[in-house]
Amino acid sequence: MPVMTGKELRIVGFLCNWCSYGGADTAGVARFSQPTDLRIVRVPCSGRVNPLFVIKALLDGADGVLVSGCHPRDCHYSEGNYYARRRLETLKEFLPIIGIDARRFEYTWVSASEGQKWRDVVAGFTAQVHELGPAPKWDEIKPSCEVQSGCPAPRRPLGCGAHPALAELKEQIKAVLAAKDGKGPDCVLGWQQGYDPLTTTMLIMEKPEDVDKLVWGPLNVQNLATFLPEYRGRTIGVVVKGCDSKAVVELVQENLIKREEVVIFGMGCNGTVNMRHVREVVGEDAVLTEVHGKGADLHIATAAGKNHVLPMLEIAQDKCRACALPSAACSDHFAGKPTVIPEGAEAETEAVMVLLEGMSLEQRLGFWKGHMERCIRCYACRNACPMCVCRDHCVAGSRDPHWMTQEDTSTQKLFFQLIHAMHLAGRCVACGECGRSCPVGIPLYALKIQINRIVNRLFGYEAGRDIAALPPLLGFEVQERNIQEHHIGGA
């Protein structure tokens, strides 16, 4: 069958060797007429189709991508298509956030004997892609660097004041470090005053006297769980906020650290500040002489004699506004009382998501193109992420497989961010370190917010809550509750 209407489009098909490729062969032997747009890539199993195959094809100019495998319960490898179903459904719901129409990607099941069905699938999907037309050309997309505005109301009260239980926390850490039974941690990770009054850095407490340097408050922005895998094999203590503790739980789940080797110290968190918002007010080059919290305000004095009072409601990180876990998910020692969220309290939608949801698909493509053109490819987002643990084997530097080039193009930079987001599906603990650490302020956190929304909606799962839980993309259900079979029009 010739091209359906007008110019032939570029459609890529990933077909399971045992069923769908056989179905395509059966259709060919039976001489069923088919559109000529499809280019087939044979794979051992649909479970072998990494979602990144689909993303790479679409970013490289494909107008549509089709994945087809054995019917559930008929997989040659027993379970491959069950895993594929979860990954591919997650991907399909994720594509619109980056500006790609979800209808440009479909997955389905065709057996080797279903030549007629294969013909109908190809014809139906090709017609669907032709109706959408050629995919937008990346070079023709108008870049935009629009940034979010507004301050969503927080789920709970946020504050800057000194925590009344800090002295209790220090005593708990000193007691553990001073223990003579040989079972205590080699050191405890916490925060200390940094190079200026607005900065905190990691504090390694090895002796009780080191504990006096410990600080706790709205400036403790770093997630110290990021460093725990480096101490694997040693007993290590760590002071955590609620979001940090979720990272500890997830690391234990994945056997990247052992629970018995980690001593967790927790205390209720009242929120942390967005340093970029603060600097926008006081000035990037302003020399600060004093920073302290009082009530719900952050007070800042500069060397130029200016005093600023910044309400926490205006400078808090978006993740703190939406936080549902201000106290540690698990801890060995907890100081003071847990921070309480008012019953029935709901967080408003994050400002960056409000911005993206109000855009068209083409505008979203322009949004990400504009921000990726600003990216300096420093990988601070990867290095700050507590769940990004394969840095020595990262696809960004690997030549086997050769997923990425070193070209300084916005498509390569966006592809890396999408790899990062898909690797974190079902694993991201919403600590916000990716966006916070970005030196040019790219709102990378939006990608993680969306992937977490999808995982929660499809599988009812939130990473970092339960050590005994199995991350959803590492398992499956024979009959998925929230995944409906995709029926391609005409098939």
Overall description:
- Helix 11 (361-374) crosses helix 13.
- The chain is of the alpha/beta class and 491 residues long.
- The protein has three domains: 11-137, Lumazine/riboflavin synthase (Rossmann fold, 3-Layer(aba) Sandwich); 166-335, no CATH class; 351-474, no CATH class.
- It has helices spanning 20-29, 51-59, 80-94, 115-132, 166-178, 242-253, 275-282, 312-315, 318-322, 351-357, 361-374, 380-384, 410-423, 433-437, 445-459; strands at residues 11-16, 38-43, 64-69, 105-109, 187-193, 200-205, 236-240, 262-267, 288-294, 297-302, 307-311, 333-335.
- The longest helix is centred in the first third of the chain and has 18 residues, at 115-132.
- The model has no long low-confidence stretch (mean pLDDT 92).
- The protein has a five-stranded mixed beta sheet.
- It is globular, with a radius of gyration of 25 Å.
- Strand 1 (11-16), helix 1 (20-29) and strand 2 (38-43) form a beta-alpha-beta unit.
- It starts with 10 loop residues before the first strand and ends in a 32-residue tail after the last helix.
Summarize the structure in short.
The chain is α/β, with parallel strands linked by helices and 491 residues long.
Notable characteristics:
491 residues; four-stranded parallel beta sheet; Rossmann fold; 12 strands; 15 helices; five-stranded mixed beta sheet; alpha/beta
- Runs in which pLDDT lies below 50 for 5 or more consecutive residues are none
Strand content: 5-15%
Order of strands across the biggest sheet? Answer: 6-5-7-8-12
Helix content: 25-40%
User: How many strand elements?
Assistant: 12
State the helix count.
15
Number of individual domains: 3
Overall radius of gyration: 25 Å
Class from secondary-structure proportions: alpha/beta
The biggest sheet amounts to: 5 strands, mixed
Mean pLDDT score? 92
Q: Globular, elongated, flat, extended or rod-shaped: what is the shape?
A: globular
User: Topology as H/E string?
Assistant: EHEHEHEHHEEEHEHEEEHHEHHHHHH
User: What gap, in angstroms, lies between the N and C termini?
Assistant: 16 Å
